[in-house]
Amino acid sequence: xxxxxxxxxxxxxxxxxxxxxxxxxxxxxxxxxxxxxxxxxxxxxxxxxxxxxxxxxxxxxxxxxxxxxxxxxxxxxxxxxxxxxxxxxxxxxxxxxxxxxxxxxxxxxxx
Amino acid sequence: xxxxxxxxxxxxxxxxxxxxxxxxxxxxxxxxxxxxxxxxxxxxxxxxxxxxxxxxxxxxxxxxxxxxxxxxxxxxxxxxxxxxxxxxxxxxxxxxxxxxxxxxxxxxxxxxxx
Lengths: 111, 114
Known about the structure:
The structure holds 2 protein chains of 2 kinds. Chain A has strands at about 5, 10-15, 20, 25, 35-40, 45-50, 55-60, 60-65, 75, 85-95, 100, 105-110. Chain A is mainly beta. In chain A, a hairpin with a 2-residue loop joins strand 7 and strand 8 (about 60-65). Helices cover about 0% and strands about 50% of the residues of chain A. Chain B has no helices and 11 strands. Chain B has strands at about 5, 10-15, 20-25, 30-35, 45-50, 55, 65-70, 75-80, 85-95, 105, 110-114. In chain B, the strands form 2 sheets. In chain B, strands 2, 4, 5, 6, 9, 10 and 11 form a 7-stranded mixed beta sheet that branches. Classes of the chains: A mainly beta, B mainly beta. The interface of A and B includes residues 42 and 97 of A.
């Protein structure tokens, strides 16, 4: 079945560092891909998405490119802030329009 | 109120209690979801309702009973829970529109079973 694998956390960085959180997937066909973010004490929010190969999703300085060759959708940000500390989830939408989730990666940004 | 709201935000219950979680969406969506979020585990989809009809039940124990009286409200009735049911329960909604099925989440109910 479809699956999503994320790098394990926590990922700890200093403010203004470059961020990469890896995400790879296994799926039939070319599913839509998503990154969601969960701030402490809150529900999940859609951060960005890409619906077809080579699409780049972007929001709030975060970017991810849909790479079908490597079945990846890595999340990147050029300069992180303390306010980016959260848990980040990669997900794909399967053929039944249900989301298949990665385990989440906790990001800690130190001032 | 906007978006997806959930009440209560926190709930502590004994194993013999009966309680209900409530979710309300103010987005005009036609699908609603219950998820369970446990520490260090992927989100677990529990139930899906489309147009008030249950379309998904991912082998959830019968001590969890969902109810969807209309497209804006979703309940999760709880009875005789186990300590391992302690988790964050998240509600979400979506509306299929031009292939966009983005899910919008509520803040969750933190459930502790003692």
